[in-house]
Model the fold of this input.
Amino acid sequence: MTAPIAERTRADAQWSPARYSVLCRMKRFFERYDGDAEFRVRYEQNPRRALASVAPDLALEDIRAVRSVPRHPPASIVDDVSLPPLARDYCRFVLERALRFNRLRAEAGPLDPRFRGWRRRRMLQAEDELGSEFSQMLLFSTAAFELSKGCSVGCWFCGVSAPRLEDHFRYTSVNRRLWREVLEAMIDLGGLEAMHINFCFWATDPLDNPDYEAFADDYRAIAGAYPPLTTALALRDPERTRRMLDRFDADVCRFSILTVPMLDRLHREFTPEELGGVDLALVTPGSRMIKANAGRFRERAAAHPELLQVERGKRSARREFFQGPADRGEDVPGTIACVAGFLINMVERRVRLISPCAASERWPLGFVLYGDRRFEDGRDFRRVCEELVCEHMFTRWPAGRAVRFRPSLHFHPLGSGFELRSTHHRWSIEAAWQGAACHDLGAWINDGCHQPGELTELLLERHFVSAFETEKQISQLLREGLLDEEPPPRAATSPSQGAP
Done:
């Protein structure tokens, strides 16, 4: 049997059992502080008494020392001798989890070069449009698998507007075969490392499906690791959850906590050590976790703008509690989507190609929908995935498509070329050939109505620039994620984002 999450985390970090236990209790204090507004009031009124009610063996000085470092501390913090030893260890405890996350994210580049380049461009675009702080929190997984249709939880703020639970993909012999064929196809396309950050939920809760463990066991047998887990149903059957914690070796395990009574019960049901390797998504009323302005939250905030003000206020409150340098990024994230790849619903036998974006009128759920297909069996799944790759993950700009900059970029002409500016970045574009030609290329792309062949003819006619040089410059803009790759708008997009 796989070692429990707590034991694995302790072994990986090389903590002694006693030290690990103390670190877990400090983690529990911050969970209580983040998720319970009334506890925060009590802490501000009488810190020692409030701390004693949660972790009586911790020293207030250690809590204050942790508060003195940034929310996302640099790696060098573990060597800062000005911090008490326990505070340094807790920073290391947090950093090890962050470094593991970053390693998984970096190693998950797909095997297929078309897919790998497309994912990289989506990451560059997200960093620019969502802000570097927030985009770095996204895994950019290459696939997500839904084992149900809909979700039983029904969060009012759901960023992907999950529909009501309707059906499950049950673990029958036929479905088991299809499941394994789909997993094998994704490994061939994305590679084993990418599978380690892919997961089995989206607009669903994995524990809604009574056969989730069987599907997860197959996933591990084929991919070499259990899929990351996020659930709001950890307390529906605590013993089932405990069994999962004892056997699963997923690198990411997270429980969504919706209310303070739910947090109370979780802390009663599970020891700090049992939850040592579990991250809590604390979305309780009054929590310090910032909700994304997407999906159902966005719909409600349109009618009640004060909801957005509440979320914006949380950022300044976080800065006040963690007294290090201010975080950089958007005040309210515009998405919870973290997949740049395939969204696969096994019940509907449906596959969509998506990537994160800030929610908008066109993309209200916080992800761009590039393509949508249905499949019949494992072989058909491979076929439709290849269709989506060929259509959208191009390495050269398509001949019949107008070249234009991303809508979030603003064009500014320069004497020797042009500059592109956004909220967070700016790019100065200069070509090896004459500046007037580079300037005109930027202006024509900014017009957004010229195909590659037309740009080639214009540059050749007016500036004697070769077709090779023109294509090279367009390809460079593509590689940097500066061109608009979203599918052209259709007549209408449904609220469920069912059509690109």
